[in-house]
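Ligand: 2-aminohexanedioic acid. Inputs:
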Amino acid sequence: MTVATATYQNYIGGEWVDSSDGGTFEVKDPANGELLAVFPESTKEDVDRAVKAARAAFDKWRLMPAPHRGEILFKAAEIMIERKEDLAREMTREMGKVLAETRGDVQEAIDMLYYMGGEGRRLFGEVVPSELPDKMALSTRLPVGVVGAITPWNFPIAIPSWKLAPALICGNTVVFKPAEDTPILSLRLVEILLEAGLPKGVVNMVFGHGPTGAAIVEHPDVDLVTFTGSTDTGKKITKGAAEDLKRVSLELGGKNVIIVHEDADLDLAVEGIVWSAFGTSGQRCTAASRVVIHEKVYDEVARRVVEAAEQMKLGHGLEDDTDLGPVINQRQLDKIASFREIGEADGATLLTGGERATDGDLADGFFYKPTVWGDVNPKARIAQEEIFGPVTALIKVGSFEEAIAVANDTSYGLSSSIFTKDVNLAFKAMRDLYTGITYINAGTTGAEIQLPFGGTKGTGNGHRDAGTAALDVYTEWKALYIDFSGKIQKAQIDELKFDA
Ligand code: UN1
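Predicted complex:
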């Protein structure tokens, strides 16, 4: 193991500072345990200082014209384009996923910065007719105030950009706590925003584990908490925020499903399944952890998915021929491994995988073999619970209707897809799959930033990241009535008298 390559600090009120008690934590490469960096473990006191700094910066920032705020986001996007390759490589070392995917992660952040930068010249409200003469009625948006952003490790720069870019364009200031597993890339985002001209105090960054996040959630002067992560933590955040009636926006777990109908193009379907189930080592909220297959094509799809899974090469994500990187840490590895017994107890058939990969150098990292379960009962725990690893469950059904019913029968509702050539069935699926995202003839991953991202049921609390929908999270609506009649018009419409 080599020595730490860097020691970083919190960023509060425009200053780089250690945590108040000097506490730190280490960040390691999940593929080989190499020490990458040391970060401050932030205390309640640090969070309090960060919130105060964000509050102090709020008025100046909200009063900066939104197009100017947008220019800072555009500039940040341009800097990020120049550094895309370096950022992607650094992300692969910090988080594990392969370079093609980390490049995609950085690209999502670039896209989001441009998209939200453009919103600086839109942020549309409505102008509507008034009921009364000589009166104007319209709606506009107010920033919410101080936003606490708590982000996960699986998209270390994309998801922070999904939160920070809309928060900033709407005129909010931010206290940002990135995941303890991937603080480096989140720090890079903030550094780039600062280089692009973000004023001091507008974004404040505190590193740390759960208690640091809890201190943000419970701080009385935070107005909105935006969080992507597990459903359990989402519930805790909702309770923690309830006392002050804070706004809470949650993107939580998924148990996403691909339906393969009997008429599907099986080449497409198999490729879609393998990519959605095992890409990012299954560590996407959108990963396809269930595949519901028509009985007429079940055996063939199962055989081909297993064959493809067994051909995947595990290794360090920086190596050219690697298909699958490690999972993020020991805790996740243990959790994924625990589903082996759970699957067996539920009577499913392990078709491939189901264990750590430990050949050669792989033993130094958190590698888990791509795993396929067959003949899974739709009620089994491996078909109901989010595993967040390279594991998928194949379920056999006899009809389209049964496939839809099975697909909808979970407590989550993020992403779904169907492979079929029947246009009528495709439209029925779009209508009947009760998820926030549905794909036709594609896998369950690959959402684009210009549409709302989020889900139904246990996947969230009705909010969406991305698209114009995100603007509703980061603003309060304000209705404006402007009376230019020169009178106090006391009545509503029923009192009106007009000459015929
Ligand atoms: C996530 O896993 O939380 O749609 C985000 C996708 C990516 C984003 C995933 N664009 O798979």
